[in-house]
Specification:
CATH superfamily of the largest domain: Aspartate/ornithine carbamoyltransferase
Largest sheet: 4 strands, parallel
Helix content: 40-55%
Shape: globular
Keywords: Pyrimidine biosynthesis, Transferase
Strand order of the largest sheet: 2-1-3-4
CATH architecture of the largest domain: 3-Layer(aba) Sandwich
Order of helices and strands: HEHEHEHEHEHEHHEHHHEHH
Pathway: Pyrimidine metabolism; UMP biosynthesis via de novo pathway; (S)-dihydroorotate from bicarbonate: step 2/3
Number of domains: 2
Number of strands: 8
Strand content: 5-15%
Catalytic activity: carbamoyl phosphate + L-aspartate = N-carbamoyl-L-aspartate + phosphate + H(+)
Family: Belongs to the aspartate/ornithine carbamoyltransferase superfamily. ATCase family.
CATH topology of the largest domain: Rossmann fold
GO molecular function, one term: amino acid binding
CATH class of the largest domain: Alpha Beta
Length: 315
Amino acid sequence: MKNILSMSQLSNQEVYDLIDSAMEFKSGKKSKIGADKFAINLFFENSTRTKSSFQVAEMKLGMNEIQFDASTSSTTKGESLYDTVKTEESIGASVAVIRHSQDKYYEDLVNNHDLKIHIINGGDGTGQHPSQSLLDLMTIYEHFGNFNGLKVGIIGDLSHSRVAHSNAEILTRLGAQMYFGGLNAWYTPEFAEMGPHMNVDDLCREMDVVMLLRVQHERLSSEENQSFSKADYFKNYGLDSTRVAMMKPDTMIMHPAPINRGVEIADDVAECDKSYIFPQMANGVFMRMAMIEAVLEGDDLENEVADKKRQAILR
């Protein structure tokens, strides 16, 4: 695969292959595929976990990172995203991890331009977040060993969450049963096609996996933010110890983070025995190593084919 842009791009087999590769890295597999190669992390939105996780993954693969700060880059002078990416390709970057506020920013890059650099989507607007989705899948697979028939509930700001879009899509395709909770206004027709809306107590009693999402205030209107009450939200939709006690013994609590303690999750629940929030983050490094390796392997195959052609000509 040349690029990893959305979960819909990946076949089920490719998803399982990436999970297997990530688990091999977690078990100690070494790879020199990134030796002497350069990566650029083009983040135009704030990030802690995704950016630093990709940085660690790149270093573990032997890559060098080209430093980039959107606030001091030429994009502030009007440079297009394409010209920024093409510049990094021209100076030797092999992989560009991009987070951008525009939904499907990558379509113009891959459909209208002949780029040699590999693009990995680090999150686009409210669209897709493939690396988060894949690390979530890895974490669930480690715990249950399968996806088919699992009941997965996603609670929170569904409509603004690229994680919700990515996870609901791929989990449905892999055979999980999807359910949703939170404000009815966030339960859009897209999610209604994949599963019913339920109250949080019922979700906690029935789900194998409970995924929480933060409220994305930066994407809400000023009126929505002014009327929002943290206390009311936590009472109606937040996960506290009482709701955790309703869960089945092996239920997983997940969250892509950043977590807002006391809003969607209680402080004592964030690191309880059922919580996989920080194990998700640890798995993120191994999954991102697998993703980078997957796109770079295409270069090695192309070089191998080119070498064979040259050798045939010399004969």
